[in-house]
């Protein structure tokens, strides 16, 4: 007869439960008995109370456990006469150990001010485990706790407190992967909070703190009251970042890309990135007014910076991303840039380019883009091998600091648990603990390729900015802060106590830093001047170009033939879904010129030709592989085994990368990611596609703050294209409009291109022009829906091989121009409604002109077209959108300029409306018929 425990494991084992599952379940039970299923709980309880081993020898059971993989160290036995009995106290001790691992952080000393308390602290007293001081000297088996197999309860407790409830509060038991958990657990317990840094490193830490404090004091005295969003209170960030960069270099990193908001940014710029402090002082004094290539510039605490530094592992390039005031939005931008850099380096292990995202405590918990960014972290199209997140947790957001005002979670970092990222809360006044967790985080990322979070718990010495009075809203906090010594002072005293340096040495360090600031040179000593780095991108061909720069977008006939065959080719034995098979068959006919080509064919040809010419293509969006409207089919799905074949990845040997991504269902973070990618890769056609165009407003921050103004504010070019399905087809308010008017309203200084192509050939040339023209400006395209399959919206081979993108298209029917008295101007799908009606009614005195590019408005082309219609007296702008939307108000001045002096342009379109479209198809049809008649002058 077997004992109960053995039978239990055996039956579970036979029923398919893995040993590691049992082990994990048992750990869970030890941590919280209520958290496991009641059947298991009863069994584990039984085991704890009376493990009956009468008829099985102790060694047999041990061997059995060993075989089923259960970590026998977890289960302690008391010895005796060939049998063993589990000691209930032993189990309590193991429970205590697990509880510290899981909840030790509730009691950790992570807040320098001592104000923060975990809202739901677990009771970790001995009594709560039915242990007492009387047990302190008893030896227990410790399971897999670091140190000897058996330790006294006192030793166990000391290790647990030092590891889990000292100045680091580690959260990692939410991670399901046992290997990751074990790894963190072993590292932490082995270190046992006694992080032994060499003297040299400790001095460097003090140097970093000296720089952090020194700069803020200097700025505070030179420019009193000027906004600088001081780092003071979170000073440990500086030695932390410096060490992280050095360690990254040692671990093989070549680039570190950083995103951060305004708090502490000037400090990072000068003390980490190596920006010359004199340049910063000049900015404070208002001297540096204009940025390179830009026209508006930006405030100093939004500015980015690039530099190279020497580390113990070799040179590392540093890039701090430009960012707006909109907190957290820069994170996905940084990740996009990192992905582009990793791809350029063929850095498949993601070890060469490291993303560092610095957050604020209120924003990291309050802003939805953080969650979106975490969600992207392991998704194929956005993977960068994990990010290092640092939260500058100064426990207050502007004037809001009460827990239940700022968030509904215990920690500001709880969102990170959704991707099972480990979180290390660390006391900002203990810079050695800060350095320790930073190195641990880097190591974790390198090993497991996942996100990891460091919650740098600190405070804000001044108000939100230096002109703010924090006592008005945070009186108790600021009474504490006033009396609290600076991180530098605390650490200086510690090093003096430990005899690492003398008080004079410490003072000299401070004086030296001040002197360095006065020299007007960079304070970052390992900065490398004029470093020629590998994989640098040359942006010079794209600088100082105009939107009229020429672009030969035609294709030779032989090239057309070659590429069109490639895009139609797929393995003979690939079973396709019947509609897709038919479509590929049609494409073959289009390739031969047997039928006219549709949108999907022309678009695919554009990508093929760009790839053939050496440009990469990255098409990312909501259902982009197939296309929302079943028109693209860039990805062919094998109907038998669900494998995929992507013809555009088989254009030629050694072709550039073609990437098509069905994106996570986010607009904000995904568009920000694509923007970041595009600002780092001018030779890639980067496209973000919305499922329906109006969804772009979920990413309005990216459009307003980056895409439309990044070049003007920061001199950063981007050739990102936005494909936004747009058109009034009776689908209701939400699926009709990509809000063309918003993009036109943002248009100025030739910042973006707003295009509404009406034929497949136009789409072809537009896509090619975006890369071939040496101009990198965002391209906003109102892409079609019904035109994808419209009988008139088709193109010929000639139009692709001989043509080019036409910013405006003249009337296509052979009307007698001298008889034309009315000219209708329009963009997009309504053109075909107008054309059909005009033909049906034989209105040969009405010409229809298409404006294919609404911004920059093609004045010259339109004027040339207009000049041919000498008798024209009536001019109309026709649009499908309501009058307050679409192009009418934003482009009216351009239309007025296009018509002869003294003429006026009339409006034909829907009446002004709050919603973009009506919800009823019948009303939609009535409106559409009326606006077409109005435009053509039909009574
Ligand atoms: P980074 O690798 O981002 O540090 O960029 C290195 C340098 O390349 C910058 O200092 C700029 O001179 C230039 N650069 C990078 N990105 C852009 C861009 N999007 N537009 C124009 N110049 C850029």
TrEMBL record:
Residues 597-790 form the Transketolase-like pyrimidine-binding domain. E1 component of the 2-oxoglutarate dehydrogenase (OGDH) complex which catalyzes the decarboxylation of 2-oxoglutarate, the first step in the conversion of 2-oxoglutarate to succinyl-CoA and CO(2). The keyword Oxidoreductase applies. CDD domains: TPP_E1_OGDC_like. It catalyses: N(6)-[(R)-lipoyl]-L-lysyl-[protein] + 2-oxoglutarate + H(+) = N(6)-[(R)-S(8)-succinyldihydrolipoyl]-L-lysyl-[protein] + CO2. Belongs to the alpha-ketoglutarate dehydrogenase family. It comes from the Bacteria. GO terms for cellular component: cytosol; oxoglutarate dehydrogenase complex. One of its GO terms (biological process) is glycolytic process. Keywords: Glycolysis, Oxidoreductase, Thiamine pyrophosphate. The gene is sucA. SMART domains: Transket_pyr. Gene3D superfamilies: 3.40.50.12470, 3.40.50.970, Multifunctional 2-oxoglutarate metabolism enzyme, C-terminal domain (3.40.50.11610), TPP helical domain (1.10.287.1150). Its cofactor is thiamine diphosphate. This is 2-oxoglutarate dehydrogenase E1 component.
């Amino acid at each position: 007869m077997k004992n109960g425990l053995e039978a239990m494991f055996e039956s579970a084992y036979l029923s398919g439960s893995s040993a590691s599952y049992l082990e994990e379940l048992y750990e869970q039970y030890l941590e919280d008995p209520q958290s496991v299923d009641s059947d298991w709980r009863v069994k584990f309880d039984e085991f704890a109370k009376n493990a009956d081993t009468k008829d099985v020898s102790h060694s047999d059971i041990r061997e059995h456990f060993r075989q089923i993989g259960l970590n026998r160290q977890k289960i302690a036995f008391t010895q005796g006469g060939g049998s063993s009995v589990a000691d209930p106290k032993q189990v309590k001790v193991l429970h205590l150990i697990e509880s510290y691992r899981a909840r030790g952080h509730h009691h950790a000393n992570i807040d320098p001010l001592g104000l923060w308390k975990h809202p739901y602290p677990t009771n970790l007293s001995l009594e709560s485990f039915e242990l007492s001081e009387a047990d302190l000297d008893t030896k227990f088996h410790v399971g897999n706790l670091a140190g000897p197999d058996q330790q006294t309860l006192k030793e166990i407790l000391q290790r647990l407190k030092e590891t889990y409830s000292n100045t680091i509060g580690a959260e990692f038991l939410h991670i399901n992967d046992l290997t990751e958990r074990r790894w963190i657990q072993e590292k932490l317990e082995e270190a046992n909070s006694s992080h032994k840094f060499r003297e040299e490193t400790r001095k460097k830490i003090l140097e970093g703190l000296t720089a952090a404090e020194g700069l803020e004091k200097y700025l505070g005295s030179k420019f009193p009251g000027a906004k600088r969003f001081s780092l003071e209170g979170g000073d440990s960030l500086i030695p932390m970042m410096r060490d992280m960069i050095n360690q990254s270099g040692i671990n093989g990193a070549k680039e570190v890309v950083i995103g951060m908001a305004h708090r502490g940014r000037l400090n990072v710029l000068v003390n980490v990135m190596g920006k010359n402090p004199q340049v910063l002082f000049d900015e404070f004094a208002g001297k540096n007014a204009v940025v390179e290539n830009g026209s508006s510039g930006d405030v100093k605490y939004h500015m980015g910076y690039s530099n190279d530094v020497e580390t113990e592992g070799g040179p590392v390039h540093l890039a701090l991303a430009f960012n707006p005031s909109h907190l957290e939005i820069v994170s996905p931008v940084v990740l996009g840039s990192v992905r582009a850099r990793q791809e350029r380096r063929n850095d498949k292990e993601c070890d060469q380019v490291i993303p560092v995202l610095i957050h604020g405590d209120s924003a990291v918990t309050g802003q939805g883009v953080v969650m979106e960014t975490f969600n992207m972290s392991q998704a194929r199209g956005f993977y960068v091998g994990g990010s290092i997140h640092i939260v500058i947790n100064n426990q207050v957001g502007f004037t809001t600091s009460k827990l239940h005002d700022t968030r509904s979670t215990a920690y500001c970092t709880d969102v990170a648990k959704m991707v099972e990222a480990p979180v290390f809360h660390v006391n900002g006044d203990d810079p050695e603990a800060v350095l320790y967790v930073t190195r641990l985080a880097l190591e974790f990322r390198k090993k497991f390729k996942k996100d990891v979070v460091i919650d740098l718990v600190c405070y804000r010495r001044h108000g939100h900015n230096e002109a703010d009075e924090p006592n008005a809203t945070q009186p108790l906090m600021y009474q504490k802060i006033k009396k609290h010594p600076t991180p530098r002072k605390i650490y200086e005293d510690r090093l003096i106590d430990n005899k690492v340096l003398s008080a004079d040495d410490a003072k000299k360090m401070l004086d030296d830093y001040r002197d360095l600031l006065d020299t007007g040179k960079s304070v970052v000593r390992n900065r490398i001047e004029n470093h020629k780095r590998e994989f640098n991108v040359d942006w010079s061909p794209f600088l100082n170009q105009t939107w009229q720069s020429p672009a030969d977008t035609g294709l030779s006939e032989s090239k057309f033939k070659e590429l069109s065959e490639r895009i139609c080719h797929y393995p003979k034995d690939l079973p396709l879904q019947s509609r897709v098979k038919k479509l590929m068959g049609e494409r073959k006919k289009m390739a031969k010129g047997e039928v006219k080509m549709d949108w999907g064919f022309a678009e695919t040809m554009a990508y093929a030709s760009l790839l053939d010419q050496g440009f990469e293509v990255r098409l990312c969006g909501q259902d982009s592989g197939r296309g929302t409207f079943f028109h693209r089919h860039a990805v062919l799905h094998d109907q038998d085994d669900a494998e995929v074949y992507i013809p555009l990845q088989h254009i030629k040997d050694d072709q550039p990368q073609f990437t098509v991504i069905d994106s996570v269902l986010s607009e904000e973070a995904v568009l920000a990611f694509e923007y970041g990618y595009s600002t780092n890769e001018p030779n890639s056609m980067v496209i973000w596609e919305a499922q329906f165009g109006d969804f772009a407003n979920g990413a309005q921050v990216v459009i307003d703050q980056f895409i439309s103004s990044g070049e003007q504010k920061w001199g950063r070019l981007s050739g990102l294209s936005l494909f936004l399905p747009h058109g009034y087809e009776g689908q209701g308010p939400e699926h009709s409009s990509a809000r063309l008017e918003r993009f036109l309203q943002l248009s100025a200084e030739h910042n973006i291109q707003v295009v509404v192509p009406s034929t497949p050939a136009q789409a072809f040339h537009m896509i090619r022009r975006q890369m071939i023209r040496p101009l990198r400006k965002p391209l906003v395209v109102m892409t079609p829906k019904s035109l994808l399959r419209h009988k008139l919206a088709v193109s010929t081979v000639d139009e692709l091989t001989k043509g080019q993108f036409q910013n405006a298209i003249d009337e296509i029917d052979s009307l007698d121009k001298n008889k034309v008295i009315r000219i209708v101007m329009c963009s997009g799908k309504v053109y075909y409604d107008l054309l059909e009606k005009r033909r049906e009614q034989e209105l040969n005195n009405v010409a229809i002109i298409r404006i294919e590019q609404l911004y920059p408005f093609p004045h010259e082309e339109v004027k040339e077209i207009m000049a041919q219609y000498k008798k024209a007296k009536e001019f109309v702008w026709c649009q499908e959108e309501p009058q307050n939307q679409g192009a009418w108000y934003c482009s009216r001045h351009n239309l007025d300029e296009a018509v002869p002096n003294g003429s006026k342009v009339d409006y034909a379109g829907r009446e002004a409306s709050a919603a973009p479209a009506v919800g009823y198809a019948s009303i939609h049809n009535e409106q559409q018929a009326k606006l077409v008649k109005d435009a053509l002058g039909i009574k």
